[in-house]
Amino acid sequence: MTSTSSSIKRPLVLAVDDSEDLRDFYEMALASAGFSVVLAADGQQALDLARELRPDVIITDVSMPVMDGLEFLVRMRSDLAPPLPPIIVCSGFDMTESTALRLGAFRFLPKPFESEDLLAMLTLALEGRKPEGDTMAAEKERIRHARERAAKAAAEALRDVDFASPRVKAAVQGFCDWIADYFGFGGVAIAFVEGGNLRTRAASRGSAIPPDTVFDGHALYTSGVLASGASLVIADTSTYSFVNDRVKPYGIRSFVGVPLLGNGVPIGTIVLVDQHPRSFAAEDLLILEEFGRGAIQTESALPAAVERIGLLTPGSFHRVLAAELALHHRHGGSLDVLLVEHAARGRLDAILEALHRTSARSRLGISQYGVNTLAMFVHDPSDGGASRRLSQALASIATVTPLRATGWISLASHLPMTPAQDLVEMAAGALEQAQKKPAGSIERFELRRQPWQGAPISS
Fold first, then answer.
1. What is the pLDDT of residues 104-131, one digit of tens each?
2. Distance between the two ends of the chain, CA-based, in angstroms?
3. What CATH number matches the domain at 311-458, 3.30.70.270, 3.60.40.10, 3.40.50.1970, 3.30.980.10?
4. Where in the chain are the domains?
């Protein structure tokens, strides 16, 4: 039984991961086991905390924004005076294991893992003992079985999908092009599980990875993504030899990969690549992961997705909008939120098709808000063109169905942070005002200084 007496110093563990869910897991699992826990969301935060607190042991992810886990290992050795705490590196990408150990990690713990595995590793780290050979062999066998189960689950989820079908091809290609338009990255590829490997089924303009390219577990797309459901972000592939060897044939310098889920099962990968080093904000990664989670809601939904490209669930809409608001708050630009009441009577597929033909897709998010109402936002971080793009979007919808009323909220730059739910509620209030006016009216407000103060600019 673990003592909770204040006279006994509990070992301090610094847990580093950009996933809020995993940080919550670490806090709960370690605190209940008698450890003191401090959390960090990236390597830079972890480095600052390590300098200040000198934890007894550190657990870190590899793929994180700002500073990844491998750079964190290097900086720990260069910036902190010895003795350094043992560092356990956790990742779903086992190709990083040899590099992590070479850079001074005490141990590499592959994701996914159970709390018992983590606690056993922490005990060894605190005692200064390396795992025995038979323990490591059993661990590798467990990982192999986990990957086999993941590949089997993915194959089952995709069992009824005919990738040769024109409708499925259109759905996957449309999804790929929408993501490329949204992020403006060098290129996007969508890969699905096939025979335990990953095969690209769509590639956007400018993608260095062509369709029908097959990657096994030793190539660019590690099969670890299936077992772990982990994302991988590499701002500059030349920094790490284990990545550089795999991407040389494609001329790729930056890489972002997130799991593509079908009915909650990892069935593939969404990949963003560029031939130049590119940073990728934590908020952008959250958005891309939302796209990966929400694209295919059921095992048989892929063919029907051609009519739902870019349509977010209400929950995803709020989470993506919150991330865009954080980016807007930090970098400026323009961000507009609309609620649009239309008369399509269920013809949502035609509305979405019209929207996708416009130039409004850049940072455009769409969700249903009631039976005949759409929630929409556009964030333009560069030229302040969100209002223009939404005007184009409204015009495109009007070619399909009459617009009854629109509530429109525009945000200027350099405003205090505004919760996504508050903005949607403001748009709902503006919509109610527009509904009291003649059909087709737009009630538009611009937030200029405080999120609760607005000035009408058109109606």
1. 888 888 777 778 888 888 988 888 766 5
2. 68
3. 3.30.70.270
4. 12-131, 166-306, 311-458
